[in-house]
Amino acid sequence: xxxxxxxxxxxxxxxxxxxxxxxxxxxxxxxxxxxxxxxxxxxxxxxxxxxxxxxxxxxxxxxxxxxxxxxxxxxxxxxxxxxxxxxxxxxxxxxxxxxxxxxxxxxxxxxxxxxxxxxxxxxxxxxxxxxxxxxxxxxxxxxxxxxxxxxxxxxxxxxxxxxxxxxxxxxxxxxxxxxxxxxxxxxxxxxxxxxxxxxxxxxxxxxxxxxxxxxxxxxxxxxxxxxxxxxxxxxxxxxxxxxxxxxxxxxxxxxxxxxxxxxxxxxxxxxxxxxxxxxxxxxxxxxxxxxxxxxxxxxxxxxxxxxxxxxxxxxxxxxxxxxxxxxxxxxxxxxxxxxxxxxxxxxxxxxxxxxxxxxxxxxxxxxxxxxxxxxxxxxxxxxxxxxxxxxxxxxxxxxxxxxxxxxxxxxxxxxxxxxxxxxxxxxxxxxxxxxxxxxxxxxxxxxxxxxxxxxxxxxxxxxxxxxxxxxxxxxxxxxxxxxxxxxxxxxxxxxxxxxxxxxxxxxxxxxxxxxxxxxxxxxxxxxxxxxxxxxxxxxxxxxxxxxxxxxxxxxxxxxxxxxxxxxxxxxxxxxxxxxx
Length: 580
Ligand SMILES: Cc1cc2nc3c(=O)[nH]c(=O)nc-3n(C[C@H](O)[C@H](O)[C@H](O)COP(=O)(O)OP(=O)(O)OC[C@H]3O[C@@H](n4cnc5c(N)ncnc54)[C@H](O)[C@@H]3O)c2cc1C
Prior knowledge:
By secondary structure, this protein is α+β, with helices and mostly antiparallel strands. The protein folds into 2 domains: about 1-45 and about 80-110 and about 210-315 and about 495-580, FAD/NAD(P)-binding domain; about 320-490, Succinate dehydrogenase/fumarate reductase flavoprotein, catalytic domain (Flavocytochrome C3, Chain A, domain 1, Alpha-Beta Complex). The protein has helices at about 15-30, 45-50, 60-65, 70-80, 90-110, 170-175, 180-200, 210-225, 275-280, 300-305, 360-375, 385-390, 405-410, 420-425, 430-445, 460-465, 540-555; strands at about 5-15, 35, 55, 115-120, 140, 145, 205, 225-230, 235-240, 240-250, 255-265, 310, 315-320, 345-350, 380-385, 415, 485-490, 490-495, 500, 505-510, 515-520. The strands form 6 sheets. Strands 1, 2, 8, 9, 10, 11, 20 and 21 form an 8-stranded mixed beta sheet that branches. The longest helix has 20 residues, at about 90-110. It is globular, with a radius of gyration of 24 Å. The two termini are about 35 Å apart. About 55% of the residues are buried. The structure holds flavin-adenine dinucleotide (FAD).
């Protein structure tokens, strides 16, 4: 039997999306919980993210009269995921639990004072399929005044949303239309006023993932969840086949922490581990990821050492990026999401051929690039656009119509030419091929129907485009010189495969048996979304929900095996999930 330096009910490894949610559940059951985070900041990639959670049938949809139900969401997930027999994370039982528990979790967080709301319009990524929602099912945190965290403020990992004025993600998404819309001009005015009031009243508004994890951190600290940074977990402690604790580091020496009800791993994926990428995701690079730096995969490997089955390891939350000079080294890479789905732009492979609906989900987009690359060089592919695009839309994080850095041209990132043929030559493509591709696309624009890839047929494609471009938000001709191209790479915002867990978030062995005392959530696990990305928030959402599910299970189960406690796995009670 172990001698522990300390004992809690639940020990959580990593301060990701599900961690503090699990902490709140444990505290509301009167249990002790410790979160161990290896970096100096709390919140993981979840804090860095947009903080969007895909929460079907959520209470805010009901509030706003947007139709949804468990049955409708089930129909949708089934239509998007299909059977996916090789994706055990997306088993029918787990899908069912996800769809049952997601709205309960939203209610639970509300009861804990975590202020959430929905985004008015963010279509599901396959909204045209049965059960799809054109309004969308996304839930986000309300803007959060980080000053409310007191001394914890310095420990909150910042979001990628950095606006000169305090703005929600939804507001930010509108700003590129500034020059062309009075409504957006009024919005900017509102944001400026909000910024001035914030200065006067001493508020530090944060948005997106930082608002979400900031609010979670505030609730966690308030309810007595213990959180320690710079506390890497190096090992799971296993006794008699039961996970009873972890080894971390305290004041420079190994520190053994016991866990009466279990250990929950919420330690992210392996986006920053090139060796694991080479093994599971060849052809992808740590240089193209935007995941937070702690995403290095060692806890997945540690769970594997303890017999955990893994699945879906080749899956990533792909995110197309375009990297101007200097961007590769930066933590925040400019995304190309929406760029090639905007009017006056297309994506072509290195032979000058268009090969996908540029309006697809970022996961599907990057998969398509890697697939295409098996046949024709397509990494990078090229976003080809014209002067109309340049005038109206953002490029690699720069505002529409702004002067682009000379370095972009000099170092060959941004190609410019007077004709499509000249552009093709600069891209080492056959001029006739690229000309034919552009002409065919222009023909589709004229008839307002993309016969090759149906871009614009679903609400999500149009949402990615420009609401002011008529008749199509996403189709616009490539006709006005100069013509331009920039490279697009299949980057990502994290990996999406890991250990296999059941409908109680318990980690399973290859033979399907449970590893007692071990739970996992987030991208440390094989996702419940399998090999697809049904809607915005399909990573942070599941991380929260499975953290919630794991803690409900742990809080109501017999203790799993500490000295003097019940250690017989058969005594572990399940079935508490339906009670909340
Ligand atoms: C810019 C950007 C925007 C995004 N927007 C969205 C979005 O809006 N919605 C969405 O669903 N997804 C989004 N994603 C993807 C999403 O953020 C991640 O996939 C998700 O946050 C992963 O959550 P997690 O809880 O699994 O892990 P994380 O939130 O990454 O947390 C894991 C934590 O564990 C810590 N850790 C790792 N190993 C150890 C160890 N050995 N000991 C202790 N601690 C450890 C890490 O340091 C980290 O803090 C975005 C990603 C990025 C980069």
